[in-house]
């Protein structure tokens, strides 16, 4: 791991976002979630799944939150085939990725690709108001997990 990587959150694929928010809320009084949002591939400047634009459009309901000191993102696939629906089909609900913020997303991604890791999801939002992100397939070497790198 690079010195410039800062832990941000774990990503958890879920079948029912509302129920999962309720369930996680019962763990501790220190659980809180922000406003839910929809990740919509048709509204991104770039959204590539395994290097290609998805067909049909991908939509994922999501929410960011805290469970005690841990940053958590819950992700419910709603439409189309993406990494999150793939994770649910392969192993059911559970932690699918660990996310880090980085200073230079392109450079960090290039270094990981040079080590043989594949980019399986790339998102560049329209308007530049949200974070750009890549999902790196590290499942073969990191216990079935994916690494998400983000740059605001």
Using the 3D structure, state the CATH architecture: Roll
Give the overall silhouette. Answer: globular
Strand content: 35-45%
- The radius of gyration over CA amounts to 15 Å
Q: What are the low-pLDDT stretches, counting only 5+ consecutive residues below 50?
A: none
Percent of residues in helices comes to: 10-25%
Number of individual domains: 1
Strand-pairing-aware structural class: alpha+beta
Helical stretch tally: 3
Q: What is the string of helix and strand elements? A: EHEEEEEHEHEEE
Helix and strand layout, with pairings?
Layout (H helix, E strand, L loop, with lengths): L5 E8 L3 H9 L5 E3 L3 E4 L3 E6 L9 E9 L2 E10 L3 H9 L2 E8 L3 H10 L3 E8 L6 E6 L8 E6 L1
Descriptive account of the structure:
The protein is of the alpha+beta class. The chain has a single domain, classed as 2,3-Dihydroxybiphenyl 1,2-Dioxygenase, domain 1 (Roll), CATH 3.10.180.10. 18% of the residues lie in helices and 45% in strands. It has three helices and ten strands. Strands 1, 2, 3, 4, 5, 6, 7, 8, 9 and 10 form a ten-stranded mixed beta sheet that branches. The protein is globular, with a radius of gyration of 15 Å. The two termini are 19 Å apart. The mean pLDDT is 92.
